[in-house]
Design brief:
This protein is of the alpha+beta class and 147 residues long. It has helices at residues 2-20, 52-68, 97-102, 104-110, 142-146, and strands spanning 73-80, 84-91, 117-119, 128-133. 37% of the residues lie in helices and 17% in strands. Strands 1-2-4-3 form a 4-stranded antiparallel β-sheet. The longest helix is centred in the N-terminal third of the chain and has 19 residues, at 2-20. Residues 35-134 form the FtsK alpha domain.
Length: 147
């Protein structure tokens, strides 16, 4: 019985030591640890990016498609990402946002896209965003994210 009491006391002591090594922010203090250098990560392979000419051509096609359906709008900004390209659309005054949203399938057909996403309106802006998948998806490596 005395041996089990000693074992219990030792366990409680080691638990209190572990609790004491945790800082007030809730992080475990380990002064011996150093973050490994980024040079350990491989350089990302060069990839063929989506061409700007192709993206601009789709932007013009998007404007034409909207005009064909009676929506007066123009592409004001294009943001190319690794998987999708966002076209920022500025509509003329008096154009209902719901009119653009209802053209979802027609826009996808005109752009020959599998699917598109319409962000109406873009938060914090007076514009509509139309996201179109890129023909080729670019991989983003961990080294690129951390650099």
């Amino acid at each position: 019985l005395d041996q089990s009491m000693d074992a219990t006391e030792e366990t409680e002591d080691s638990q209190s030591d572990a609790v004491n090594s945790i800082s007030e922010a809730g992080e475990v203090e380990n002064e011996a640890y150093t973050i490994p250098p980024l040079s350990l990560l491989k350089q990302p392979a060069k990839q063929k990016a989506t061409s700007k000419a192709e993206v601009q051509k789709k932007g013009q096609l998007l404007e034409t498609t909207l005009k064909n359906f009676g929506v007066d709008a123009r592409v004001t900004q294009i943001k190319i990402g690794p998987a999708v390209t966002q076209y920022e659309i500025q509509t003329a005054q008096g154009v209902k946002v719901s009119k653009i949203v209802n053209l979802h399938n027609d826009i996808a057909l005109a752009l020959a896209a599998k699917d598109i996403r319409i962000e109406a309106p873009i938060p914090g802006r007076s514009a509509v965003g139309i996201e179109v998948p890129n023909d080729k998806i670019s991989l983003v490596s961990l080294k690129e994210v951390l650099d």
